[in-house]
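Need residues for this backbone.
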C-alpha cells in the first residue's frame, strides 16, 4: 500500500498522525504539488479513532458554519472511490434522526430548515413514513419515549472507514508523500519565534510547517509548544452483534435514547452512543456502556433481545466545548497547524478538512469554509454551537 523509507532530517511539511485527517491533508497537499511531506504516527496507520469509528457520513448539522463544511465533505466522499481508485463501499442509504419529545422535534425542525436553506437534502417526516422507511422499528403507542417525528437525510450513508484511510494513504504515497508508522513524536522544536520541526527519538526532523492531526492526543502535542487547548479527551464506545438477516437498510439515531443503530452489508448490527462521562486515555470498553447501549437499542428494536454481541471497542475523542472542530494556524506560533476538535463526528469531515488544510498550508491563505473554526474563537466568544447536531449528544 505504501513504501518504507528511512526518516530524513528535513521535509517541507511534517504531519503528526496517520488517521483520516493527517492522510487526507497529505494527499491533497501532494495534489497541489507539495510532495516533500512526511506523515508520522506512533502506531499503525489508522490505529486511532479513524480505524475505530462507526463510519456514518451525513451533513445534517445545525449552524451556518457547520452545514456547508459537512455538505462539501459529503460531496467529496461521493466521488472519492474514483478519485482514490479504491472501492470505499460508500452506501448512501439515508439516515433518520428521531424526535421523541416536543423540544427534540423543535430542534430537528430548526436543523431541517437550516439544512434546506444551505443545500442539504433533509426533510421532516412523521411516523407513517418512518415506518415505511424502517418497517422493523417499534412505533407502538404508550411507550416512555414515543417516536413523534424524524429528520430524514436521504444522501447520508455509511462508508468503509479502513478503506478511506488506506485509500488516502496509498494515494498520498503514490504522489510522493512518505508515511512513517511506529514513529513517535516526543517534542516540537521552535526557533526564531516559529515552529521548525519535531523530535523523534534522539533526532530532530526539520520542517517549515508542522501539523498536528492527533485527535484524542491533541492536548499532549499542544503541550509540547506550551499551548493549552480547550479540548477534553473522552473514550467513545461501540459494538456489533452477530450477523442477522437484513432488517434495516439505513441508519437511525435517537438523541433522547442516546443511541444510534445500523446494519452492515454482512448483517451485523452496529450500535453506538455518546462519549463516556469521564475523561480518559483508556481504549478499553466497559460492561456498563454495553448494557446501556443494548437497553436503549431494545427500545427501538425489541426483537433484538437475545442476539449475541460479537465485538465491543473504544476510541478516543477530542471533545471541543462547542462540538465543532479547531482548524488552522495557531496565532503567535507560525508554522504550527491544528486539525483537531473532531470529537465523535470527525470522520465524515476527513475529505474537506484535508482539502482545505492543504490549501492553507500550500498557499498561506485560509479558505473561507474553515475560517470560523480557528482556535481564537474561544477567546473571542464566537463559538460555533453544533452540540444539538452531534450524534446521541444529549448524553452528557
Ligand atoms: C467509537 C467511535 C465511533 C465514531 N463514529 C463516528 C461516525 O460514525 N462518524 C464520524 O464522522 N466520526 C465518528 N467518530 C469520530 C472519528 O472517528 C474521529 O473524529 C476521526 O477519526 C479523527 O480522525 P483523526 O485523523 O483526526 O485522528 P485519529 O484517527 O485518532 O488519528 C490520530 C493519530 O495520531 C497518532 N498520534 C498521537 N500522538 C502521537 C505522537 N506523539 N506521535 C505520533 N503520532 C501520534 C495516533 O497514533 C493516531 O493514529 C467516532 C469515533 C469513535 C471512537
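Answer:
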Amino acid at each position: 500500500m505504501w513504501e518504507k523509507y528511512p526518516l530524513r532530517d528535513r521535509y517541507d511539511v511534517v504531519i503528526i498522525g496517520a488517521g483520516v485527517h493527517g492522510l487526507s491533508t497529505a494527499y491533497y497537499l501532494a495534489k497541489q504539488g507539495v510532495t516533500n511531506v512526511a506523515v508520522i504516527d506512533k502506531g499503525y496507520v489508522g490505529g486511532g479513532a479513524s480505524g475505530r469509528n462507526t463510519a456514518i457520513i451525513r451533513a445534517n448539522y445545525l449552524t451556518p458554519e457547520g452545514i456547508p463544511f459537512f455538505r462539501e465533505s459529503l460531496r467529496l466522499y461521493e466521488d472519492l472511490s474514483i478519485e482514490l481508485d479504491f472501492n470505499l463501499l460508500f452506501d448512501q442509504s439515508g439516515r433518520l434522526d428521531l424526535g421523541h419529545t416536543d423540544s427534540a422535534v423543535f430542534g430537528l425542525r430548526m436543523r431541517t430548515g437550516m439544512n434546506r436553506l444551505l443545500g442539504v437534502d433533509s426533510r421532516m417526516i412523521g411516523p407513517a413514513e418512518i415506518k415505511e422507511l424502517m418497517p422493523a422499528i417499534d412505533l407502538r403507542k404508550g411507550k416512555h419515549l414515543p417516536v413523534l417525528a424524524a429528520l430524514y437525510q436521504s444522501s447520508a450513508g455509511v462508508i468503509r472507514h479502513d478503506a478511506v484511510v488506506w485509500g488516502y494513504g496509498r494515494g498520498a504515497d503514490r504522489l510522493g508523500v512518505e508515511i512513517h508508522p511506529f514513529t513517535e513524536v516526543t517534542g516540537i522544536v521552535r526557533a526564531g519565534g516559529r515552529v521548525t520541526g519535531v523530535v523523534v527519538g534522539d533526532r530532530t526532523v526539520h520542517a517549515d510547517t508542522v501539523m498536528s492531526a492527533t485527535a484524542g492526543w491533541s492536548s499532549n502535542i499542544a503541550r509540547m509548544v506550551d499551548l493549552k487547548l480547550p479540548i477534553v479527551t473522552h473514550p467513545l464506545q461501540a459494538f456489533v452483534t452477530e450477523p442477522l438477516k437484513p432488517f434495516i437498510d439505513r441508519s437511525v439515531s435517537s438523541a433522547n435514547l442516546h443511541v444510534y443503530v445500523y446494519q452492515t452489508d454482512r448483517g451485523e448490527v452496529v450500535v453506538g452512543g455518546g462519549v463516556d462521562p469521564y475523561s480518559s486515555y483508556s481504549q478499553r470498553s466497559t460492561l456498563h456502556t454495553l448494557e446501556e447501549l443494548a437497553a436503549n437499542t431494545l427500545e427501538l428494536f425489541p426483537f433484538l433481545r437475545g442476539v449475541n454481541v460479537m465485538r465491543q471497542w473504544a476510541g478516543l475523542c477530542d471533545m471541543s466545548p462547542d462540538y465543532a472542530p479547531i482548524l488552522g494556524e495557531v496565532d503567535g506560533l507560525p508554522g504550527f497547524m491544528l486539525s483537531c476538535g473532531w470529537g465523535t463526528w470527525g470522520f465524515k469531515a476527513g475529505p474537506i478538512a484535508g482539502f482545505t488544510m492543504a490549501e492553507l498550508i500550500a498557499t498561506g491563505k485560509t479558505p473561507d469554509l474553515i475560517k470560523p473554526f480557528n482556535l481564537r474563537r474561544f477567546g473571542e466568544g464566537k463559538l460555533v454551537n453544533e452540540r444539538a447536531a452531534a450524534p446521541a449528544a444529549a448524553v452528557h
